[in-house]
Fold each of these.
Amino acid sequence: MDLSLTADHQAFRDELRAWLADNLDRTWADALRDPGNGEHELIELRRDWQRKLYAAGYLGMSFPREWGGRNATQVEEVILAEELSRVDAPMYLNSLGLGLCAPALIHHGTEEQRRRFIPAMLNADEIWCQGFSEPGAGSDLASLRTRAELDGDSFVLNGQKCWTTFGPWADWIFVLARTDKDDRYGGISFILVDLKSDGVDVRPLKQITGESEFGEVFFENVRVPRDNLVGEVGEGWRIAMTVLGYERGATTMATAARLGNALRSLVATCKELGLEDTATRRRLGKLIIDWQVLYSNGYRTLAGLDAGEAPGPESSVEKLFWSEFDQRLQTAAQELLGPGAQLERFDSNARPDVDWPRDFLWSRAETIFSGSSEIQRNIIAKRVLGLPQG
């Protein structure tokens, strides 16, 4: 397996770096520290940044041109995500639409669905959220109870989704709903729902970070055209595995770049404070080794994408590793830096390049979302290592 970038990939990365140097007006850390930016202002900043990226040809690059892309490969997509994280650019707003729903449409949708939805995802005209988790079906997603009953040319949806990222800001949601109550896996379908439909109620959820990025979504006799079904009735679980593979593994390089920025900041702060004792150096050294492992795993995914392979169950290895690594990193920052790591971002004494309090709180969720660490270990045991059922 060749883990090095080709000459063409290196040329693309150099071109992208030059464009970012000329066009990135402010980092995400700068935007977060601006007291004039509330949640709405930050959402619109991300929308504007997405449109700027799209106008320059840097979004949906692996999508065919007829869907608004530029016929590049997944490798360029990964390089883009890594470089955006490296310079701390704002995350483009429609990350769930482009990162999760679009791959589902590409692999399983109709040509009409691709043409209808993907261009509007790319230019941020329609923002998407993900309707998988429910109050009684988080890690055990197959226990979901939201129902979709076929009535003529429409599905009638009833149920609830929770932990819905961007729910309060989204226009559309891709939903897993039960179409057969007697078939645990084969009775689930993948349906696209307009959040402006009658009977939809979206409520913000306040998070431990103080933000309301999450929402909960209620469906009460919501009628959805049958044409909004992706794939066939009962294929939702198979489609969801495609989506979760991209969510867990294909973003590893971007995650590694983001965590690398935080790790470098931690090392620099320890040096500034004179924390160079043996115990501190050993702890930082272990984190650096872990980060190198994470980065190497990202290159393994990159090599697979370059060979035309969709992320498989091995993506659970990467998701498990980066989520637990981030918690170790954030805990180390709190313990090594003490009160300095507890300064909130608007404090004039806080470091300008990292928001330790928010990042520590946010990392608590990383071993839960996209499948908990326990679920990832089960997937690795069964589908990667082939271990017998206990």
Note: The domain at 128-235 is CATH 2.40.110.10 (Butyryl-CoA Dehydrogenase, subunit A; domain 2).
Amino acid sequence: MNTVLTTDAIRLSGSATSRDDAIAEVGAMLVSAGAVTPEYVDAMFARESSVSTYMGNLLAIPHGTNESKDEILRSAVAVVRYDSELDWGGFPVRFVIGIAGKGDSHMEVLGAIAMVFSDLSAVDRLIDANSTDEVLSILGLDAA
């Protein structure tokens, strides 16, 4: 699990101002990381149009559809924190975490992220984090 998220795939201050812009932003990070093809980003939009990826506690986890599995080159996670809340279908979001998982490898990552975001004090620490290393440490995805 130690290679799915690196500090260069964490953005402390995203530029998006809407849900769709945020999906495009985190998707572009996954493409830049060499984890997915641009078609995977299209599948992230398709997934969002069929079911919201809002998870609660200021978190959304956009990801592709089952049909887009072939567009995943390697498992990876990209994290974007926003200075202001984005409207995610009527819900406030400050963290957008894009996930691409080869096979079922993303399930462990999803579980780890869910645990962190179920703890409001951890969410507060993520909001206050001053470095990508700090975000990585709080998410707990920096250890195998």
Note: Residues 7-130 form a domain with the Mannitol-specific EII; Chain A fold (CATH 3.40.930.10).
